Amino acid sequence: MDLMYSSTRSCDIKVTASQAILKGLAQDGGLFVPDSLPKLDVTLDELSKLSYQEVAYEVMKLFLTDFTKDELVHCIECAYDDKFDVKDIAPLKNADGAYYLELFHGKTAAFKDMALSILPYLLTTSAKKNNVSNEIVILTATSGDTGKAALAGFADVDGTKIVVFYPKDGVSAIQEKQMVTQQGENTFVVGIHGNFDQAQTGVKQMFSDKKLQKELEDAGFQFSSANSINIGRLVPQIVYYIYAYTRLIKTGDIKNDEKINIVVPTGNFGNILAAYYAMNIGLPVNKLICASNENKVLFDFFSNGTYDRNREFILTSSPSMDILISSNLERLIYRICGNDAALNSEFMESLSKTGEYHITDEMRKQLSDFYGNFATEEETAEEIKKLYDKTGYVIDTHTAVASCVYRKYKNDTSDDTKTIIASTASPFKFSNNVMRAIAPEFESTDDFELVDELSKLGKVKIPSGIEEIRNAPVRHNTQCDVDKMEDMVKQFLTQSKKSPTSKR
Ligand SMILES: *Cc1c(COP(=O)(O)O)cnc(C)c1O
């Protein structure tokens, strides 16, 4: 029996894993969730003897049950190969009493590569399985890192096109340059005059616009998503938490079945939700620590059970977490309200109408696995400096938010459980702010001068994904207002037409 996926907003939509991946978002605007969470069928000890790719198979097969072994192994092997600059894909660095799980060794130097290297393979396999002949148009809103990782993953993939919307003034200089220099005839990048939430809302609206879908269908296209609302993003993210734990068993740092804490710098709640799923399928977790920057909606939510996005949107030095509407929280809300789609829909409707909702006490009790806190801009910079001065290890601004929140957690609780901190980006992606934190005397407005100096100070090689954009020509310079996103998509699809060679 295949594991089926339902929408968080109605009980009558049920699809297989491959169909959920193809659709991205359910047609009622809900997110696809598995009807039950499976359990690992091998022990953690056994997993500690396997490679990243083999662990990926053991985890992903539990969720993507309508994929054959051959299909899944093929997707995994194509994704986690020498695109990653380390053989173990996601290495752990022990610094100042915590384990930093480096998830940024893929092509674009952010953790988004962990899932977006495999998503194109999962998606084209899903299309084949479901006899889809339409060309798939990936619509993506990005707070900076998803965009580039998705572009890199889908560039020149037969049978797909990709459109990325990013907030024109809301990403780092390196992030922007990475996107606008993207190669590939099927790629399209637009800077919007608005913030990430507006980009994401615009994209979600296109997904639930029936008229637009009919128009596309007639022209031989259908939408899918590369955002973490797609279950095909979430499942590969569960893998590295399991993998990291088993490496700690292997090195003897933890005993089998010893509980650990996981700290995640959080924006759209995708990465931490993957950790929560990892816990539910059998990973021994003590606390899931949700770290926010000054856009601390989630901290407030964990503190008082009220989700309230009615507040100023703050542009911070950790732009990939500048989010007030954390989409994936909906999957957690659905679960803690007893998989009650009607009740979840009420919360989401309230969120879209009034900008807030309050969960029940009963639901709050089920959040005891989580701890939330936040770091200010000043604290984030201090954290980078402190860790660098003490250990020589350089972390990026997002990881610094997590690292700082972990310090606060330890102060609050005196808990000394071994802790993994998700390190979500290479410091080179945010060289400007990282350099200002560790070497304020080095003044330069040239991004690559900062990158070069950072490489010297941190004694780390510049990732190839950063090096290769140093002199790359700009290929995309389209901008639009928030209310013109749909027009942009249509314009792109007409001008690029369906590629005649399209085949899979
Ligand atoms: C996307 C991103 C995050 C936030 O992850 P979510 O899954 O959206 O919570 C944190 N750090 C970096 C560097 C990111 O790119």
Written account of the structure:
It contains 22 helices and 16 strands. With about 500 residues, the chain is of the alpha/beta class. Helix 3 (about 50-65) crosses helix 4 (about 70-80) and helix 17 crosses helix 19. The chain starts with a strand and ends in an 8-residue tail after the last helix. Pyridoxal-5'-phosphate binds near residues 267 and 398.
Global outline: globular
Query: Per DSSP, what share of the residues sits in E-state strands of 2 or more residues?
Result: 15-25%
Fraction of residues in helices?
Answer: 40-55%
Q: How many runs of DSSP E, i.e. beta strands?
A: 16
| Number of discrete helical segments | 22
How much is the average pLDDT? Answer: 95
Gyration radius, rounded: 21 Å
Distinct bound molecules: pyridoxal-5'-phosphate
Q: How far is the N terminus from the C terminus?
A: 28 Å
Which runs of at least 5 residues are low in confidence (pLDDT < 50)? 500-504
Instruction: Please outline the major beta sheet.
Output: 6 strands, mixed
Q: Order of strands in the sheet with the most strands?
A: 4-5-15-10-11-14
Structural class by sheet pairing and helices: alpha/beta
